[in-house]
UniProtKB/TrEMBL annotation:
Mode of membrane association: Single-pass type II membrane protein
Pfam families given in the database record: Peptidase_S26 (PF10502)
Catalytic activity line of the entry: Cleavage of hydrophobic, N-terminal signal or leader sequences from secreted and periplasmic proteins
Protein name: signal peptidase I
Amino acid sequence: MLARSAAGTLMAAGLLALAVRRVLVVTTVDGASMEPGLRSGGRVLVRRTRRARRGQVVLFWATDGPDGDGPATGRSGTLLLKRVVAVQGDTLPAGWAEPDVEGIAGTTVPRGSLVVLGDNRPTSWDSRHYGYVSGDRLVGVVIRSLPAPTTR
């Protein structure tokens, strides 16, 4: 009887863990593009969602590199954290950011797209370089920073 109860408890715990993983992601910040708010080596908790608002920090799949040669889905295995500065329907003012390599200044953000920038602009590879971020590449929004893991 005790074995059955323990098995049921373990199964329930496993199902709960799977449910939490479908909703939340923990990731480690890598690089200085979001400093000073998010430092390299820090960890953040991300809520999975396909919707983001201006001002939120988002986690999304990037293309392979500055040449934008990633797969059609944009899911190359590289995840980036950046701040949303414009959402669909927003018009980007001319001269909104330097450099504007993709030439999106003065345009309206298309449906299902975001414009993202790193908080530390001089070190950030962001929408100024690769243009709009398609909503299908969005993993979720950062809901909080987590304490550093303890080492023994």
